[in-house]
Write a structure and sequence with these properties.
single chain; alpha/beta; Rossmann fold; eight-stranded mixed β-sheet; five-stranded antiparallel β-sheet; 14 helices; about 25% strand
């Protein structure tokens, strides 16, 4: 980290949060993160374009079209595993500019019947991005609808006769996390409050009686240790379980994070492609946290069977990313260097290839998902 951790800006949301804290006292990190991203007036995801060279970060679909194409082919194969239902609801959570869905639908043309069966549902709260997605998918040739929350998708799915495929790329990292801090032998909520100069700062909140960190079996808590967990994983799991009750369900999540519980703070902010303090510019910088895939897997077992997690490099590699990139390079020699560089960024070890993980959830009667090793086999 090279930013100034003490830097602060009085953004409109910062002023709003300060007034709230003066009235009500410190707020939890989860409340702070949720306000920064989703405040109705000033939340980052309510109004900021966010993605792309002109935004604050770049996602895998923007790096290489091969990413979205492989996801599209993966969805088509999963549809076949479901028994090729006449209707399949393809849901994308946080679809960004619509790039991944566009590339996925284009690639899936090779499988007869899949595109005719597809009904696309995009879960997006950003009005600006909705318009970008509408333009991106205007020529897709499939029905597209929008919702603000995954829970709303359930109403669009009939009681039986169809399947659902949910895909979320870099979606889970934006779910609000709770933080707890160990100080003088006591676990407490970590909160955001005000210092004597009226600046937003981290502080300690209520004592957590009986609290046990998820990583307690791997190390002994030290003074100042921080534990993070995401209670919104439970909401995602419950939404998936309700959808699964209506018909076959498969969900795929790809995000950066760790395969098991780990001590330490991962909450981070990005502004104009550079790291900044999460307290710098509330509502104007993107806040995310690393995904605990072990916690996610344990919670999502209520929605179905879990495949993975595996690294993004393993997942994309098993789907044939190198072979597909080679064919694309042969067909477009003028762009061969660009294609090769993009794919390398997706699968590079010690970078996106290992930092990002993939995890799948499937209905109990469905076979193991493509891209994931069958449990018990090498």
């Amino acid at each position: 980290m090279t930013y100034d951790p003490e830097a602060r800006r009085d953004t409109p949301l910062a002023l709003k949060l300060k007034e709230r804290i003066r009235r009500e006292g410190p707020i939890t990190v989860a409340e702070y993160m949720r306000a920064c991203l989703h405040d109705p007036e000033h939340g980052y995801y309510r109004r900021m374009p966010a993605i792309g060279a002109a935004g604050d970060f770049v996602t895998a679909p923007e790096i290489s079209q091969v990413f979205g194409e492989l996801i599209g082919l993966w969805c088509a194969v999963v549809w076949q595993q479901m028994g090729a239902p006449e209707v399949v609801h393809l849901v994308e959570l946080g679809p960004g500019r619509g790039t991944m869905m566009r590339d996925a639908l284009r690639a899936a043309r090779v499988l007869p019947g899949f595109r005719e069966a597809v009904r696309v549902h995009l879960v997006e709260s950003n009005a600006t991005l909705r318009e970008v997605q509408r333009e991106t998918l205007a020529a897709s040739g499939v029905p597209v609808s929008w919702s603000r929350e995954l829970s709303e998708i359930e109403d669009a799915i009939p009681p039986s006769g169809s399947g659902t495929i949910v895909v979320g790329n870099e979606y889970l990292d934006a779910l609000a996390i709770e933080q707890s801090i160990f100080r003088s032998g006591i676990w407490r909520d970590r909160c955001v409050g005000l210092d004597t100069a009226g600046r937003l700062v981290y502080c300690e909140g209520a004592q957590l009686d009986g609290f046990k960190p998820l990583w307690r079996e791997t190390r002994i808590a030290q003074d100042g240790d921080i534990e993070e967990r995401c209670p919104e994983f439970l909401i995602v799991s419950m939404d998936l379980a309700r959808i699964a009750a209506k018909g076959p369900l498969v969900a795929l999540f790809i995000d950066y994070g760790h395969a098991g519980p780990a001590a330490g703070e991962t909450l981070q902010a990005v502004l104009a492609h550079a790291p900044v303090s999460p307290l710098l510019a509330p509502g104007e910088s993107d806040l995310t946290a690393h995904v605990d895939f072990a916690l996610l897997a344990g919670i999502c077992m209520d929605a179905g069977l879990v495949d993975g997690p595996v690294t993004q490099a393993e997942f994309l590699g098993s789907l044939g990313i190198v072979e597909r990139a080679s064919r694309l390079m042969a067909a477009n020699p003028a762009k061969a260097g660009e294609i090769e560089t993009g794919v390398a960024r997706l699968i590079a070890p010690n970078a996106r290839g290992s930092r990002f993980k993939a995890i799948g959830i499937r209905s109990l009667d469905l076979p193991p998902l493509p891209g994931f090793p069958v449990k018990g086999k090498a």
